[in-house]
Specification:
The complex is a heterodimer of chains A (494) and B (212). Helix content of chain A is 35%, strand content 15%. Chain A has a five-stranded parallel beta sheet with strand order 5-4-3-6-7, with helices on one face. Chain A has a five-stranded parallel beta sheet with strand order 17-16-15-18-19. The radius of gyration of chain A is 23 Å and the shape is globular. Chain B is 32% helix and 15% strand. Chain B has eight helices and seven strands, in the order βααβαβαβαβββααα. The longest helix of chain B is centred in the C-terminal third of the chain and has 14 residues. Chain B starts with 5 loop residues before the first strand and ends in a 7-residue tail after the last helix. In chain B, strands 4-3-2-1-5-6-7 form a seven-stranded mixed beta sheet. The chains are: A alpha/beta (494), B alpha/beta (212). At the A-B interface, helix 4, helix 5, helix 7, helix 12 and helix 13 of A face helix 4, helix 7 and helix 8 of B.
Chain lengths: 494, 212
């Protein structure tokens, strides 16, 4: 590379030299994060990437710890690890422990592994316990400029902080435990730019669902996505986490947003964040965490954010999404035969007819929670819609599951719990809950759910269950109306 | 890890795009703290007509006769032919463990989701990417010649179907590890000094990353 570069400079003279240096120096946010963490590179581009923060939960870690034990290895840097049980924990009274013996064993296995290897764990009785992707940012354990991994695909959430964060499998969890590193190939750079302000009633969830609808569930495969543009910059950290959380549903392992004043204000004063002089030094560094103005992306997608309407998924893949004021699409109008076949299977599973107005779809259950939408801002937004209304008679169950014990505490301090319970919602303990139904919270076959989670896959919320992904506001609106409805019809002041 | 050099076996067609890891192994089986035993519950919701659970004996369940892996000879297949975006969704490595435990050694598809793709290599399961039009032809062939065997050769990077030979691309480092059944951790720990050096430098430049 250098030889080649020198030859060009000699041929073209000193002005070109400046241009080349500028082009070579221009980096995307992803390039910067990547370069800062490369320990060494192989000739074929495989890099050993250093990991700053390793988040661990009970489902994808037991086999990794077992692997360490078998090989007589120890965690390389135990201080980088924060563990929490979240997938299996009950959201009802926990004082008697977990009833299901299989779930209980998995949670106890995490407790025992953390004790044996001397790792920090927020166990089920800790007020800081919650969904792993909620507690990392809440504690300041997720910081700008970090590499963050977890054996969970929604680790992309943490990219909202200008961090490089992605999900890994259990073998990779063991690899990070043992070496503090991962073997990785660099992804390509994609910029998804959301231009213009969004309309009233349109949230971070609607933005990301619209993006997935546009680029498809495999649109981001092989890419790291940076989300930018006015609509992203206007979002709170909670909103940016919602967007990055679902980068994986667009196929991208990592999603990220550049650091700005919103990021730094959120991080300051959190328990794991630096303080005093070290914070000043860190902020100086964090302010560089954005793509250079002349950085080159492999792919750029522009989306007019002003045109986005509140979104509702109608199928069994997050890309099967439509605006609230539209109809269930017709597979016969799809020219790609594989896609059309997928749509037919989805409509059959979902029990829907092509052409049905989205607003005429009635729901049985409502779930407000998950690592996508269970932060305090989500609960405030949903409560605002619910306030003074009642859950509709046809709704069998409406659940609010806060993302962490601290979110729950804050919501109770603001009396949001009373808004929900007075309307007929159940107010639960924190965890992943009905996002994937590993605990007792689930759909029965054929039941239809308005859910603020991230996946509408077949059986995700319970075998035969039918999931429609929406924002917290839209879930709340569906709960009080009994069917999907544009939240703006309930909240005209918006 | 089990090495992969070459393998011939019956090909099962799974003709749907976006097969997600929730479908490959549903959540109730993720409660296991072991790496083995997931095979009988691979594609559980499609394979059985009644609900399953970790403590339910699969031999007492109603089998879905329409699902491809329940039909002979696909119940003995070891190569899976899939569509776009195979293995999307959750990072659960249990999905790969379920496929290998069923007996699969390779999955052939036009594209794979990144995390599933990575996880496969850690477990001796070879994910092979071929062009969508080639995959279309292979589906036709598999449907016409039920029970046809493909021969996969990793060294020469080819899939042989009768007279036809289809070359595929693979990352050289992954190929090397798979051919030799190498443990990544052992390889990485050969660079322990480089990791320590990186850490020392980084602690000077960005000490806030080392608060615990």
């Amino acid at each position: 590379m250098n030889l080649y570069y020198e030859r060009i400079c000699i041929t073209l003279g000193p002005d070109f030299d400046k241009l080349v240096i500028r082009l070579m120096a221009a980096k995307t946010l992803y390039d910067k994060l990547w370069d800062d963490h490369v320990v060494r590179s192989e000739d074929d581009g495989t890099a050993l990437l250093y990991i700053d923060r390793h988040l661990v939960h009970e489902v994808t870690s037991p086999q990794a710890f077992e692997g360490l034990r078998i090989a007589s290895r120890k965690p390389w840097r135990s201080g980088s690890i924060l563990a929490v049980p979240d997938h299996n924990v009950p959201t009802t009274d926990r004082s008697a422990g977990i009833e299901d013996p299989v779930s209980r064993l998995q949670v106890e296995t995490l407790d025992n592994n953390c004790r044996e290897f001397e790792l920090t764990e927020f166990d089920m009785s800790d007020i800081r316990q919650g969904i792993v992707h909620v507690i990392g940012p809440e504690q300041g354990a997720t910081l700008p400029g970090m590499t963050v991994v977890c054996g969970d695909s929604h680790t992309s959430t943490h990219g909202a902080f200008g961090a490089l964060a992605f999900g890994i499998g259990t073998s990779e969890v063991e690899h990070v435990l043992a070496t503090q590193c991962l073997l990785q190939k660099k992804s390509k750079n994609m910029l998804v730019s959301l231009e213009g302000p969004v309309r009233a009633g349109v949230t971070a969830k609607d933005i990301v669902l619209a993006v997935i609808g546009e680029i498809g569930t495999a649109g981001g495969t092989g890419f790291a996505i940076e989300f930018g543009g006015e609509a992203i910059r206007a979002l709170s950290m909670e909103g940016r986490m919602t967007v990055c959380n679902m980068a994986i549903e667009a196929g991208a392992r990592a999603g990220m947003v550049a650091v700005d004043a919103t990021t730094i204000d959120y991080v300051k004063n959190r328990p794991y964040a630096p303080q005093g002089e070290m914070l000043d030094r860190a902020i100086e560094n964090w302010q560089q965490l954005h793509s250079d103005s002349d950085a080159v992306f492999d792919k750029v997608v522009h989306i007019d954010a002003t045109a986005i309407r509140p979104q509702v998924t109608w199928g069994t893949s997050p890309e099967m999404v439509a605006p609230i004021d539209s109809r269930v699409p017709d597979p016969e109008a799809e020219t790609d035969h594989v896609k059309a076949d997928g749509m037919r299977k989805a409509l059959e599973y979902m029990g829907l007819e092509a052409g049905t107005p989205i607003s005429q779809i009635a729901v049985d259950k409502v779930f407000i929670g998950s690592c996508t939408n269970s932060r305090i801002e989500d609960l405030r937004a949903a409560a605002q819609v619910v306030k003074g209304r009642r859950v509709a008679d046809n709704i069998k169950l409406a659940l609010v599951v806060p993302g962490s014990g601290l979110v729950k505490q804050q919501a109770e301090a603001e009396a949001l719990d009373r808004v929900f319970t007075e309307a007929g919602f159940e107010w639960r303990e924190p965890g992943c809950s009905m996002c994937l139904a590993m605990n007792a919270d689930r759909l029965e076959p054929g039941e239809r759910c308005a859910s603020t989670s991230n996946r509408n896959f077949e059986g995700r919320q319970g075998q035969g269950g039918r999931t429609h992904l929406v924002s917290p506001e839209m879930a709340a609106a569906a709960a009080v109306s009994g069917h999907f409805v544009d939240v703006n019809e309930l909240m005209p002041q918006n | 890890m089990q090495a992969f050099t070459r393998h011939s076996g019956i090909v099962a067609p799974l003709d749907r795009p976006n097969v997600d890891t929730d479908a490959i192994i549903p959540k109730q089986y993720l409660k296991s703290i072991k790496r083995s035993g997931f095979g009988p519950n691979a594609f559980d919701d499609w394979r059985y007509l009644d609900a399953g659970a970790p403590d339910v004996d699969n031999s007492t369940r109603r089998v879905n006769p329409d699902f491809v892996l329940n039909q002979s000879p696909y119940d003995r297949s070891s190569i899976l032919l899939g569509r776009e975006n195979f293995g999307c969704g959750s990072s659960r490595e249990h999905a790969v463990w379920a496929l290998t435990d069923f007996g699969f050694r390779a999955v052939i598809a036009p594209s794979f989701a990144d995390i599933f793709f990575n996880n496969s290599f850690k477990n001796g399961l070879l994910p092979i990417v071929l062009d969508a039009d080639v995959i279309d032809r292979l589906f036709t062939r598999v449907q016409q010649e039920k029970g046809i065997e493909f021969a996969v050769d990793l060294e020469s990077q080819t899939v042989t179907v009768g007279e036809d030979v289809y070359p595929f691309e693979i990352d050289q480092f992954r190929k090397y590890c798979l051919l030799n059944g190498l443990d990544d951790i052992g390889l990485t720990l050969r660079h322990a000094d480089a990791i320590r050096d990186y850490e020392q430098n980084r602690k000077q430049q960005a000490p806030w990353l080392f608060l615990s």
